[in-house]
């Protein structure tokens, strides 16, 4: 367990402004590196499909294998962070994922590429799995909503930069060159993370390993024992599944009939991530004004509205739909993530953060693959119908759980 090192339990909340900026810079850089690398293959899925004679569902495994491995690894790694500390886990995560990113273009076959992507997913798991807990411990509960919002804004920048870099590089250099460019981008921001991530302000406990492991298991039980936390995990699962399903299929829709865009132009749809950066960074004010329940429900409904806007075969309307759904999704994610971090019991923050992240990337892996199969078999309208249903189920989960909590 982590203990307060000579500081009261008042959260260590008010760090010096310079230290706070350093923390935010480090986690933003780690987010840019991690998310640029994690989703680098997404804009080149049509090229992978053509190279290896794959259907959209099989090509989407280049994304889903990594996110699935991340989902399966995140809880064990989060538990490990309770023993060895958050900072070593984050640093190991960004360094290993960057190295694997540079190896990806050298894969001699699609099978080897998938193996490397699975290993990369495991490596990346160390950052998102413990980052929210790290921020709570460094900055305190009072600042966690704004800090998590800033972190997610960095994540969206990474996702956007990685996808745009891959999309624009693919036309000139093929998917090998595209992955090389993103690997270099990840390396740059990994170095920035290593140089700027502050040491922990709380010391690790000197208790025995057996006692620490018992504490970790108790933390897992606590993270799964609060209904309000379970609701946030459900939001992560359903909303992320919807989001990745749509973006996995976006390249096929935009480069196919009737829109027929080139891969480079089609990759411009990822500029919609800029709206995600804005919406996630303003979550602190949103929650302060409307409360968590209204903010989460509203953001999910905005996401569903954006999904519906992608139905017409009009490029302008489709792009507008992606802008709206991206802004709504990242706002919902930032609310749910900070809500889970704030509601996590003392001693179970790492486990709660890990469970949230597990749900998030399980949604990415399963939802992304299922959505790609739906698109391949039935087309875009059925994919829209499926994802809207998933989002409405997330809305119902938040509303019902909050109502029951208020009644207790």
From TrEMBL:
It is found in: Cell membrane. GO terms for molecular function: transmembrane transporter activity. Residues 22-404 form the Major facilitator superfamily (MFS) profile domain. It is a multi-pass membrane protein. Keywords: Cell membrane, Membrane, Transmembrane, Transmembrane helix, Transport. PANTHER family: BLL2771 PROTEIN, INNER MEMBRANE TRANSPORT PROTEIN YNFM. This is MFS transporter, YNFM family, putative membrane transport protein.
């Amino acid at each position: 367990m982590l203990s307060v090192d000579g500081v009261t339990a008042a959260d260590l909340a008010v760090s010096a402004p310079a230290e706070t900026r350093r923390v935010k810079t480090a986690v933003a850089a780690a987010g840019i590196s991690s998310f640029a690398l994690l989703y680098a293959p997404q804009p080149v899925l049509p090229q992978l499909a053509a190279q290896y004679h794959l259907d959209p569902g099989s090509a989407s495994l280049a994304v889903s294998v990594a996110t699935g491995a991340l989902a399966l690894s995140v809880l064990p790694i989060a538990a490990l962070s309770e023993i060895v500390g958050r900072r070593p886990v984050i640093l190991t995560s960004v360094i290993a994922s960057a190295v694997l990113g540079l190896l990806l273009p050298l894969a001699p076959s699609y099978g080897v590429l998938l193996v490397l992507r699975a290993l990369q997913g495991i490596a990346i798991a160390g950052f998102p799995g413990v980052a929210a807990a790290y921020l709570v411990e460094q900055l305190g509960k009072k600042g966690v909503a704004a800090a998590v919002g800033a972190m997610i804004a960095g994540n969206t920048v990474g996702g956007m930069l990685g996808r745009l870099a891959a999309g624009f590089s693919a036309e000139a250099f093929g998917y090998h060159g595209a992955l090389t460019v993103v690997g270099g981008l990840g390396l740059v921001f990994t170095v920035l993370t290593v140089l700027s991530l502050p040491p922990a302000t709380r010391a690790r406990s000197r208790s025995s390993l057996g006692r620490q492991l018992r504490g970790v298991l108790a933390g897992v039980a606590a993270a799964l024992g609060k209904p309000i936390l379970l609701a946030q995990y459900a939001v992560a699962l359903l909303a992320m599944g919807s989001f990745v399903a749509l973006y996995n299929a976006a390249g096929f829709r935009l480069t196919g009939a009737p829109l027929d865009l080139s891969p480079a132009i089609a990759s411009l749809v990822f500029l919609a991530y800029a709206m995600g950066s804005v919406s996630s960074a303003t979550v602190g004010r949103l929650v302060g004004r409307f409360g968590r329940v209204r903010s989460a429900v509203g953001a999910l409904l905005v996401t569903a509205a954006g999904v519906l806007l992608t139905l017409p075969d009009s490029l302008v309307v489709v792009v507008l739909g992606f802008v709206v759904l991206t802004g709504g999704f990242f706002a919902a994610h930032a609310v749910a993530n900070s809500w889970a971090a704030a509601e996590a019991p003392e001693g179970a923050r790492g486990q709660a953060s890990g469970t949230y992240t597990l749900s998030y990337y399980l949604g990415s892996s399963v939802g992304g693959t299922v959505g790609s199969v739906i698109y391949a078999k039935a087309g875009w309208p059925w994919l829209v119908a499926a994802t809207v249903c998933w989002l409405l189920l997330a809305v119902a989960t938040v509303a019902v759980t909050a109502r029951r909590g208020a009644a207790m």
